[in-house]
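[recover] target loaded
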């Protein structure tokens, strides 16, 4: 089986970079990156500058178009489908045309992934999402992830997942993300895993524990998904834990104790004596101190209910001897979540540089120095994934595909 990949919601190419670093023969046959409402598609352009563009089976370029209007049948065949898609409302209803059909909310990107799965039937998939995916929505916890798993089951796939804090596996950022590995049940791997005890899948035999070793797995909770996806959307709720496995609609999920590795520390990614524009000026210091400090603020809700909004302090500046905090798309702007550090050379307080943001995500220095504005460089890194986590999964996937 060849090592061909299709990358959806590609950003600046973190999935591709993570696999190509393995030098094990991965080839990307098509990708898609489109930012709604953006006049200039900065991330797409950055991707193309590094990797080049891709034609579809009709010989046309549609990598920078809205994935909703892309003809899915024209996407080239591939062994692996990947993508970091947003956490949205995955509720569905029956279509008017057929009681058997389903219709999701317009603009929800999971349905575009499902359409590709139906059209192309890739043997393997890896997807990335925020950690709260497992708990959403608040009024029906676990429903959204249940809908995703029900789609996999309906299409003949099994799936593993883990919530990974990148810093516990050697990265420079305390970034928690849900990774999902899905595979077709009719692959050799699928046939082999069908005979493995679910607890062994969670603890040792699955891709996730092989890529992200654990010390101990708790007793799994189990449940069976309804076969009707609309019923899942309407009624299903479940307490998904940080690790899990689904096959034939049967769910097993448990907490795990991870085998922690030494992380990269914030001090290890900092530059010295940076450009003057990154330093915090005295006239803005008071605002920064306020944003980073503890607060108790009296507020009134829309219904007239009075309450106290409170939040604890954030280290100011960020300490050097820990990995960085989770980086958001607002990184570098005047807000509570932005990293603020003491420059190693000058000792003065400043925000991060674009290169330091790239290092937090495991990209090469100046990966986004492709002509995009500085603000967009931070935005793209805030949207990106931690590249070494992809390489870890890729090493295990290489052995799986070679056995096919």
């Amino acid at each position: 089986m060849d090592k061909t990949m299709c990358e959806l919601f590609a950003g600046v190419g973190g999935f591709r970079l993570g696999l190509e670093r393995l030098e094990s023969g991965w080839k990307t046959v098509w990708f898609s990156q489109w930012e709604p409402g953006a006049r200039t598609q900065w991330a797409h352009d950055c991707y193309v500058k590094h990797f080049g563009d891709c034609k579809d089976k009709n010989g046309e370029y549609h990598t920078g178009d809205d994935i909703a209007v892309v003809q899915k049948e024209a996407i080239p065949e591939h062994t692996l489908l990947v993508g970091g898609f947003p956490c949205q409302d995955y509720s569905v209803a029956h279509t008017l045309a057929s009681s058997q059909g389903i219709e999701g909310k317009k603009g929800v990107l999971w349905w575009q992934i499902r359409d590709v799965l139906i059209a192309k039937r890739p043997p393997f998939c890896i997807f990335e999402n925020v950690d709260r995916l497992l708990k959403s929505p608040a009024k029906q916890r676990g429903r959204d992830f249940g809908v995703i798993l029900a789609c996999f089951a309906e299409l003949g796939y099994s799936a593993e997942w883990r919530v990974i804090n990148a810093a516990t596996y050697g990265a420079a950022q305390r970034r928690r993300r849900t990774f999902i590995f899905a595979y077709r049940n009719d692959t050799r791997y699928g046939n082999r895993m069908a005979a493995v005890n679910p607890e062994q899948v969670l603890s040792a035999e699955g891709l996730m524990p092989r890529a992200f070793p654990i010390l101990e797995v708790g007793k799994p909770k189990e449940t069976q998904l309804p076969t009707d996806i609309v019923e899942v959307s309407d009624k299903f709720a479940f307490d998904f834990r940080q690790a899990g496995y689904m096959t034939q609609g049967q769910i097993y999920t448990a907490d795990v104790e991870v085998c922690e590795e030494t992380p990269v520390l914030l001090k290890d990614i900092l530059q010295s004596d940076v450009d003057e524009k990154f330093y915090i000026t005295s006239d803005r210091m008071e605002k920064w101190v306020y944003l980073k400090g503890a607060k108790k603020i009296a507020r009134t809700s829309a219904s007239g209910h009075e309450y106290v909004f409170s939040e604890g302090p954030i280290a100011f500046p960020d300490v050097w001897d820990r990995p960085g905090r989770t980086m958001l798309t607002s990184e570098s702007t005047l807000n509570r979540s932005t990293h603020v550090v003491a420059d190693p050379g000058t000792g003065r307080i400043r925000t991060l540089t674009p290169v330091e943001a790239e290092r937090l995500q495991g990209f090469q220095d100046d990966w986004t120095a492709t002509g995009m504005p500085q603000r967009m460089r931070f935005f793209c890194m805030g949207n990106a994934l931690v590249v070494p986590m992809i390489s870890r999964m890729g090493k295990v996937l290489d052995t799986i595909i070679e056995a096919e």
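[recover] notes: The radius of gyration is 22 Å.
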